[in-house]
Write a sequence for this structure.
């Protein structure tokens, strides 16, 4: 498989964009449905308020973002003369959805008893976080330059395995009659290039098959997918055209709670910067190099515009660019997906889709993305760096495990994790506190640890010491190994990083004195054409590049 370079204007739509539309569009749809459910049932926001004040602004924000990244991809394709450039995916971050609902809006609602004030606080939170992200845009290029690629991609692998792949895979086996056949369709089409129905995109096919099996099973009293006529009839009542209503005054009213907002807005803003850098690096590994600064600034500006239209959810660049590219997505799939979601949000169609298609039918698409991202870090870095990648995955695994344990305890009626509860867990080998410490600031922690390991493998001990000192600084202010920010957080761990830095410097002197040299490291092919060739070979997705 070779890179395609053709004269003239780039193609804005290819046959593979249909796969991207139904795959990425389904991904966006699931996230929008998730945040709608959290607002309705987790926060207690009235349905009419959600469909008239929140979702219209969210839909417009997503359309602006997806269109911008398609335009950015068009510019890259025109600049390079390539026809295989894939637009970056973006949308409301899944982690942010839970944070803004449960850590920002819910406490304000409990404190004031006013759902509107909670909504205002959410929009103000987006405004503050957006400025943190835009500020990070001016340092993003430098961070990518000094940080080993293995470290940036390792953090993504941890996210891909824990928050993208595991739950969808578990859902397959909760409703295997739908899940397994949809997963087989995805495997056959996107890995083997075998289409069961010619010219029918796999993303659309799994939605149709899932709905057909779900509704068909109702005829036999089996109810696979939990689809009901009552639910469908209720969803039809939400139809109606709702333009976004300007909400800048409400957004600025939320600054009443600024001290509370800063507790989460600053660390999540830093996290967004790191994650965006990771995702841009991931796209570069797949052959598409986008400017980090323009990505971060765009995320911040468009998020603010969304907040001014009533949307309390932050926009981020998604994990998954190599996956969408492998399934054939190019320039047009992004803008088309954004337009689709905007129409669904403006016309109140989301409840109808939720009632008509089982969620398990979408799970194989997310699992595919997790598989592609999880394998990318190992494919596109030197083999000697593999241990460092494993090290960078562990903080995200710890964070996911700690959340799983806490959710389990709450489901069992244990609302407060007291020292006595922690001691009893430890007796059973469940080190919840240790997982909290390791998983605090998981993405940043993974990058620091993985980068240090890569630099040690390459005998760049001074650079490894610098990353250890950076880890000490981040830990001291609470950006790593802590649940809160502020000076003097986790001082013993910060001291440990300082001691590790000193050890690295000592090792550098020892290595120079003894004449020790780094072992030969596998050369990484960085040419975009070769990267695309490796992507196609790894996925077997021969239809991924237009010929």
């Amino acid at each position: 498989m070779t890179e395609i370079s053709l004269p003239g204007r780039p193609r804005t739509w290819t046959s593979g964009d249909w796969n991207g539309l139904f795959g990425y569009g389904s991904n966006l749809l699931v996230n929008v449905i998730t945040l709608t459910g959290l607002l309705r049932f987790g926060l207690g926001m009235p349905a009419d308020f959600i469909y008239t004040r929140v979702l219209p602004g969210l839909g417009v924000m997503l359309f602006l973002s997806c269109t911008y990244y398609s335009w950015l991809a068009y510019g890259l394709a025109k600049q390079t003369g390539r026809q295989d450039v894939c637009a970056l995916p973006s949308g409301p971050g899944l982690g942010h959805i839970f944070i803004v609902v449960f850590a920002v809006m819910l406490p304000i609602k409990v404190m004031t008893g006013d759902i509107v004030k909670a909504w205002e606080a959410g929009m103000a939170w987006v405004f503050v976080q957006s400025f943190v992200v835009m500020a990070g845009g001016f340092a993003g290029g430098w961070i990518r330059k000094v940080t080993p690629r293995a470290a940036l991609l390792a953090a993504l692998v941890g996210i891909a395995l824990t928050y993208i792949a595991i739950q969808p895979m578990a859902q397959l086996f909760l409703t295997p009659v739908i899940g397994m056949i949809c997963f087989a369709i995805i495997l056959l089409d996107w890995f083997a290039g075998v289409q069961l129905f010619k010219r029918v995109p796999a993303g659309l096919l799994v939605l149709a098959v899932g709905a057909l099996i779900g509704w068909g099973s109702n005829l036999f009293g089996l109810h696979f997918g939990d689809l009901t006529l009552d639910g469908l009839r209720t969803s039809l009542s939400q139809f109606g055209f709702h333009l976004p209503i300007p909400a800048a005054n409400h957004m600025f009213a939320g600054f009443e709670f600024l001290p509370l907002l800063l507790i989460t807005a600053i660390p999540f803003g830093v996290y967004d910067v790191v994650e965006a850098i990771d995702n841009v690096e991931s796209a570069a590994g797949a052959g598409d190099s986008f400017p980090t600064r323009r990505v971060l600034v765009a995320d911040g500006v468009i998020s603010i515009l969304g907040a001014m239209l009533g949307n309390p959810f932050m926009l981020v660049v998604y994990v998954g660019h190599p996956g969408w590219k492998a399934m054939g997505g190019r320039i047009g799939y992004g803008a088309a997906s954004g337009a689709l979601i905007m129409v669904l949000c403006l016309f109140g169609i989301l409840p109808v889709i939720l009632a008509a298609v089982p969620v398990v039918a979408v799970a194989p698409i997310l699992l595919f993305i997790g598989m592609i991202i999880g394998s990318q870090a190992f494919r596109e870095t030197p083999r000697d760096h593999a241990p460092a990648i494993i090290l960078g995955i562990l903080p995200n695994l710890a964070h996911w495990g700690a959340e799983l344990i806490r959710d389990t305890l709450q489901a069992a009626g244990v609302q407060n994790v007291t020292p006595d509860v922690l001691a009893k867990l430890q007796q059973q080998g469940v080190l919840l506190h240790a997982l909290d410490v390791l998983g605090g600031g998981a993405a940043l922690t993974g990058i620091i640890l993985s980068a240090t390991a890569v630099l040690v493998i390459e005998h760049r001990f001074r650079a490894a010491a610098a990353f250890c000192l950076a880890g000490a600084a981040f830990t001291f202010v609470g950006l790593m190994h802590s649940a809160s920010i502020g000076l003097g957080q986790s001082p013993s761990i910060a001291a440990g990083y300082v001691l590790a830095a000193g050890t690295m410097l000592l090792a550098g002197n020892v290595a120079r004195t003894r004449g020790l040299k780094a072992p030969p490291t596998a050369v990484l092919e960085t040419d975009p054409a070769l990267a695309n060739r490796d992507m196609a070979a790894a996925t077997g997705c021969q239809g991924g590049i237009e010929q």
